[in-house]
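Email to the structure team, subject: DUF1775 domain-containing protein model.

Hi all, the expression group asked for a predicted structure before they design truncation constructs. Nothing fancy, just the tokens so they can compare against earlier work. One-line instruction: predict DUF1775 domain-containing protein, return tokens.
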Amino acid sequence: MSRSTLIRSLRRTGVLTSVALALAVATAGPAAAHAEVEAEGARALDQNVELTFAAESESGTAGISKLEVILPEGIVPQDLTYEEGPKGWKFTPTARGYTVAGPKLAVGEDVEYVLTVRQLPDAKEVVFKTLQTYSDGKVDRWIELEEESEGDGHGHGHPAPRLALKAAAPGAESVSPTPTEEPTTAAPSSTAASDEPAAQGSSGKPAADDTKDDDGMSVAVPVGIAAAVLLLGGGAWWLRKRRGGAA
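Reply from the structure team: attached below.
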């Protein structure tokens, strides 16, 4: 092979290699992006387990500003303690799980945060469906279950973070449920004071006679006295009038 032919071949090979590399870089990002949860050696019913969550950025123009997580059955927000996360981000319980949110991250920056769970449920795995929101309002929905996450066949699905659990340790038991902040209604007690006024006669004693005044005297007594006074006064007036007419 002549020198000129060899040079042309090398140049052609270099160009093709560069093109292939560029295509690989361009397509590798979306295919590799994912959200996940990790806890080394986690077993069912383990207590005080540290969970590390990570979510990769898929946007080239906006930063991640919030993650909303839907908790699996057997874990409630009160079971979780927020350990660490992006600077300025806060943990907030919700009706179906929690959010971790704060100032938007730099474009392309991934999220990682750590929670401690009071106890893992008695299950083979737990799934943490996650909604990942960017500063421009875009949302990545990491909510697909295993049978739904095949996507287009090239790894472009959005599988939910999933944590496989080993079998529970011998003798492991479920702890009592975490107390909630909701008020509970106490059982009625014979010594407890009621907020509602008692019904008349509920004590079994006869109701007070409403015809008596405060000192227990019957209302009829003063009424009778007044009537007698009026009668006497009227009689005296009649007698005076009669005597005056007779004179």
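The chain has two helices and eleven strands. The first helix runs from residue 3 to 32. Ping us if the truncation boundaries need rechecking.
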